[in-house]
Amino acid sequence: MTDLLTLIVAKYNYWLYVILMMIGLYAMIAKNNLIKKLVGMNIFQTAIILFYVSIGYKKDATIPIIQNAHGGHDAHAAVIHAADYINPLPHVLMLTAIVVSVATFGVAMALAVRVYQRYQTLEEDEIRMRLVDIGPEK
Amino acid sequence: MKFIGFVIVCLTGALLLYGTGEFPDWGDPASPASIHLSNHYIEKALEETQVPNLVTAVLADYRGFDTMFETAVVFCAGLACFLLLRDFSRKKERFYRHTATGVILHVKDSKKVLKTGKEFEHMDKDWVPSDLIIKTICRILIPFIQIYALYVVAHGDFSPGGGFQGGVIFGSSLILLAISYDLKTLLSRVKEKVLGIFAALGVLIYVGIGAICMPMGGNFLDYVKLVPLVPGDPHHIRALGMLGVEIGVGIAVTAAMAVIYINIVSEGRHDEGL
Question: Of A51, A59, B86, B161, which one has the greatest count of Cβ atoms within 10 A?
């Protein structure tokens, strides 16, 4: 029992990301409303962002901005240790991923607006019923 | 469906949690992600690019090609919202409000257009009188938000920030204007065409800076070759090149955010929003 507990504490970031990701996945599978599905997709993306950022973390390290870099050329000579700064690479990947996720969310909302204009509903089962009623578009 | 979904989710979650047993511990400096390429970035980036913010250095220089297409993705998202939703057909009914008396005019004839100005103001169908406090506070706040956005873009090389963040802040200031006043106010200040041109211009600045490097004898996005074109310390040419592409990113993101918001809230008619 204590083994499992220490395992969870040592890797709690993965537990958090898995739980968040599964909440998002469940919303995408089981929710009937298209907007709720989109919210689930956003939670899913947030979980992945959390996962990446947590991978970049190092104990006793600071943010990836070199300190004392403005103090003229003498400061440049100082040796920079990789262990002092957290990994910048996941931050870069997630920075662009956040903006792209906002943009794709916008496109998804636009599609939802179009669906609503055509079927007057965002509930998936009602849309399916109306698709049967209307039949294939001519 | 809900039950099946729950079972699938539980199974997937259990598998993923089982897999985390092999993962490195939280904050482990020797984790696989932190021992290969990232050490080179941390130790050499300042020397090679003169940019203390490693995130910006990696984003705009080492991975500049990737970021260029991320900007293109944002531009395409704005374009997709425009193409999906934009509705150029004239709206049949219009509502006007006589400012002095508060009388509401309902114009059904689509050809009759009243001049809005001091006497009449355009009005949404489900219009509520906006609060004076909200309007005043937002009017005071918006310029500061925009200056902060410019600061975030300009200082992306030295402190947390950059083109994406600054662009989103600037775009949100435009959205705040549309929320606190109405969509017409935003569109009368920032024309739809201007937004479209700016979104394309931002991507063009990025691609242009990359392309100029090629006739100067370098690779695409090789900022060092820009030295003859840029006055100032040639030592900092990479930092200046990064600032240039960040400005392009900021312009593109600002315009794309505004285009997405305007088209979604008004369902593409650009008449009334939230």
Answer: B161
